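#struct-pred
JK: can someone run the complex with magnesium ion? inputs below
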Amino acid sequence: MTRSQTTTLADRRAGGAQPLIEARSVTRILEGVVPTTLVHDIDLAIGDNEFVAVTGPSGSGKSSLLYLLGLLDLPTSGEVRIHGKSTAHMSEAERAYTRLSELGFVFQFHFLLPEFSALQNVTLPMRALGRLSREEMDARGLMLLASLGLAEHAHKRPDQLSGGQRQRVAVARALANDAPVILADEPTGSLDSKSSEQVFQILRDLVDERGKTVVAVTHDLDLARRMDRQVELMDGAIVSDKRAGR
Ligand SMILES: Nc1ncnc2c1ncn2[C@@H]1O[C@H](COP(=O)(O)OP(=O)(O)O)[C@@H](O)[C@H]1O
Ligand SMILES: [Mg+2]
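RT: done, structure tokens with the ligand placed:
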């Protein structure tokens, strides 16, 4: 296949523009006495400014897919592409750099470092990327926290914050390096309904107002329906991929 044909195919998959993040024939098998297939032959192209729900029953491979898209795990076969560039043959350092600059993560449990303040947690990915001075990092971290309604909590440790506040700090951390893609695994899964709604609205705003692409795993179908596209997994494979009008 020539390069131009490859591009055409990729364009078609994303409905026009080059995908921002794409899985091509991605299979992940865990080796063991009994090998386990986590996901099988996944083709998924996600473009700019999309809000995608990944749904499916427990054990259907949602987290596995998110980890693969996020370069936190490697496919057994197939590849993940970011901005049209294959990540298959990247060194661990290149992969880490791509993760830091292109992807932000929010998990069900916030995974904030307990001994660090909210601000220090948010500036951590900036420090790892090393593009900004200390003053710039602190200013950006404060700006991000303020934009999520956490200005007065910047110097508190996670244990001094509520569950919803901690999850908003985790979102601020995901935005630290202004990555175009935010990957979220059950981001509202451990929150009460009010905090859950608040975090959902924040993700909605990231797409509508900051131009981000958000891919969120959820088993909450009401929440999924309020996103713009629903990708459904079953036994490690995509069984439906729908775009819903809002
Ligand atoms: N480290 C692991 N060891 C063994 N099995 C695993 C591991 N991680 C995931 N699995 C299995 O792979 C399947 C997919 O898991 P996962 O991606 O976590 O699903 P989901 O997020 O949809 O609940 C499940 O059957 C799960 O039990
Ligand atoms: Mg999961």
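RT: quick notes.
The domain at 3-241 is CATH 3.40.50.300 (Rossmann fold).
Residues 62-63 surround magnesium ion (ligand 2) (CB under 6 Å).
JK: thanks, will look after standup
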